[in-house]
Amino acid sequence: MYKLLLAALTSLLLAGCSDQSWRTTDVADIMPSLDFSLVDDNGDNVQADEYLGKPTLVYFGYTFCPDVCPITLARLGDAIRQLDDETRDEIQVLFISVDPARDTPEVLKRYTNAFGPEFTGLTGDKADIDAITNRYRIAYEYGEENENGDYLVTHSSAVFAFDREGNAQFLVRDSHPITDVQADIKRLTEKS
Question: For residue 53, what are the contacts with CB-CB under 8 A and spacing of at least 6?
């Protein structure tokens, strides 16, 4: 009996030393690596490999979004600001617009600057946006224009996290507690 109890305790302790899964949603085995060709909020053509070397969080949305985008980005910005300086300096956030007709580089720059220095806006033509949204299984759809030419865009609200090599690691949903998001971001920065 004593040996059985000791073996069980040893197994639990060893399990605690192993690589634990993410607190948010683990997507490492189901999502492709970071890959795109877009335009940044400075108007420069950029490739995904230019963002390698730092853990990267990616969110798809649009600047005219009345609720989901600003709430998600503000929540993400708050989570990052609450981390220690070293962790915060390691993180970069890419906001990829699904509304390239209205989200010019200038508009994106003003918008992302409101959330913090870690945020960079990206856009491109519709074909470029479709290529990356299809790659990450992001659904979006344009609503009907009103009399002023304004319209809503329905879109997914998940945040994807990639390691320094551009490999997908986890996905953050609105329902994940902020403490879990912070723990996973910190762990992502600590991975070599």
Answer: 164
**Residue 69 labeled ligand binder:** yes
Strand 92-97 relative to strand 119-123, pairing: parallel
Q: What is the pLDDT of residues 138-177, one digit of tens each?
A: 999 999 999 999 999 999 889 999 999 999 999 999 999 9
150: three-class secondary structure by DSSP: coil
Specify the pLDDT at position 64. Answer: 96
Q: Where are the domains of the chain?
A: 29-138+151-190
Residue 79 CB-density burial (10 A; 0-12 exposed, 13-18 middle, 19+ buried): buried
Nearest to 121 by CA among 91, 159, 155, 92: 92
Q: How is residue 192 written in tokens?
A: 């070599």
Cα separation of 102 and 87, whole Å?
A: 33
78 CB contacts (<8 Å, ≥6 apart)? 178
Q: Is 176 annotated as a binding residue?
A: no
The domain 29-138+151-190 having CATH identifier 3.40.30.10: the answer here is yes
Is 65 annotated as contributing to ligand binding? yes
pTM: 0.87
